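Page header: ASSEMBLY MODEL / three components / 767 residues total.
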Amino acid sequence: MKPISLSQGSGGRQSQRLVGAILEATGTKPDLPLEDCALLGEGLAMTIDGYTVSPLTFPGGHIGKLAVCGTVNDLACRGARPLFLALSIIAEEGFDENELLGYLGDAAGICSRIGLRIVTGDTKVVPKGQLDGLILTTCGIGKSTRAAPLGIPSIQEGDSLLLTGPIGLHGATIAALRYGLESEGLVSDCAPLWETIEPLLAFDGLRAMRDCTRGGLATVLCEWAEASGLGMEIDESAVLVPSPVASVCDLLGFDPFHLACEGCMLLAVSPEETRPVLEALRASRYGKDAAIIGIVTENHPGWVTLNTRFGGSRILDMPVGEILPRIC
Amino acid sequence: MCLAVPHTLVEITGPCTAIGRAGTIEVEIRTDLIENASPGDRVLVHAGFAIERLQPEEASEIEALWEEIRALSGAVQHD
Amino acid sequence: MIDLHRERVLAAAAALRRLVDRPLKFMEVCGTHTVSIYRSGLRALFPEGLSLISGPGCPVCVTAQEEIDSLLRLSEMKDIILATYGDMLRVPGSSTSLAEARAHGASVRVVLSAADALRLARETPNRTVVFAGVGFETTAPATAAVILQASRENVRNFAVLNLHKTVPAVLETLGADPELSLDGFLLPGHVSTILGLTPYLPLPEKHGLACVVAGFEPDQIMAGIALLVLQKKRGIPAVQSAYPEAVRPTGNRQAKRLLETVFEEADSIWRGLGKIPRSGLKLQEAFSAYDARVRFGISDLPAREPAGCRCGDVLAGRIQPFGCPLFANRCTPETPVGPCMVSSEGSCSAAYRYGRGDRF
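Prediction written out in full:
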């Protein structure tokens, strides 16, 4: 018996190990490096995600919104227009049907606004106590018309690293709820980013994109550095951490670079097209606070370094397992 | 060993409890370790307990220390 | 716009470059200092010759293996809810950790405050809440306050596994160690908030060690280090405070009174250092109803540290994390062998998460 620990679901290295074990056990040989969304050939893209957020609603959204936005964003990262969605619902016996329909109604609203069709689904109910309320799983299919594939192999030395907005909002919102803190102005950044990303696809210099979900910005940067064999150098002062996020981090001893974002993407862009991509982002609804946060470098291959706001420097690493509050 | 965050006391809610504000968060904290807790007090909070009042008057002492350090750094003083 | 903190840090860095003209070796005692120094990237600003080594300032790390095992045995007992600060959750005992015990069905709850542990006891009358009382003098007064409250309110289903240790005695042990040959200590800011400055006086007076109490912001730390270097250069070792906002020379009287009411001084075993006289706290007999060891008949059983683990040497400052053969290969944050790698304030954890870039 080898009990799976909670840490292995938190993103970061412990999850990587579990994923590695699963790939081996299933004899799956995915295209490496691993991405959240697979390119299937002929421009088709496919992604799947399970949503187990607790609590189910939070300032800025709920599990339904989270599920749709997460899938839309995973497809968008590969340059694929979200087209079709399959939705699996597993509810605990006794769950309020009206609450479920509320989540799904909102989710459907987001889908229809961006032209994403819910084409099939499945619903199950399990006896009380067998799961905590509700689990949603969404499988999305999209189509990309872009010739140059978006992904880690396209990242090059000298590329700029851009963030589409502030970090830590979703993770801090959930943490505040979990630990009974009320942080004024704290709202999840959960948002569907297809319309923000679509105009950027015309830029050939757009190399790769990833939404900074579980494990936060640090996890994406580390995965890119390790998989590409390049270095990433980040300017701490350029990364926007909103005050309500900073307050939660201060009180719980968290690092904002490790907190999930659900409406923020990291982009790698060629030096020549950095400015126009930045301007295009800032003109979009969810990219107003877009900023250049760093650069891809040949120095320290495989590592991410942070130039701190105090004039020093250090490496940036992924969180390990469940992010826990500390008093020491 | 000692992560502690400055809070401003917003309201005294009991003989050993108060609401403290740190940045954008208001949270219940214990005041067992400080005497005569009052609204407006600026305190250091560690593991949910205020461990001391912060003394702003000390700021001039600190500034004098930094003047000495700047002088030692050879930094050019701007007016 | 000039960032005052950044300007101060860089001014202090420039001052240190001018002042440090021979090798100087200081020990920072507080894990929170270790992490703050690393996270702010200050190490990149230290001049050649200035060596800052981490000491036993991580209360989780210095808790002896046998004490961790006692905590784990309690967590597995029927009808007990183990309430703990998050810091303890992944610390490996001889066979398991609280996180693993939880995966196997133990009731383990992370709390942000000892007060939350007592509240939990009131909310779960059919179970006993045992609170893991870990930490130094900054944290022990909160445990004392909550034990007093439990006693006053006659809360029966609450107990504390006392693991609290105290700092001044271990500093004397390290300060007197000729192999370490320290020039001084960067003293813990918030332990000093409680204790004041007097308990450290033997360090300069008996051992000629420079001592400065520093706060935790990067500029406060740099000021502390600058003062240490100045003390050495001027040949006047003393106990100085660079943290007057939070530290009164006589400490926090109220907190010290609470400690004296509930606890008494005791010998304590520190990982890597063995038994140090008068370096810990134990619950007074009047409060034995709240002492988990007494209530549940727990005594610390001899435990062996994992093979090859050098946490003790790291904690005592004999080696740096990079000097441990297991560091970053067999021992990593996701597969920790010893507590220095798993605690958020452990020297090895900090070196791994922030400091491997020192090699670039």
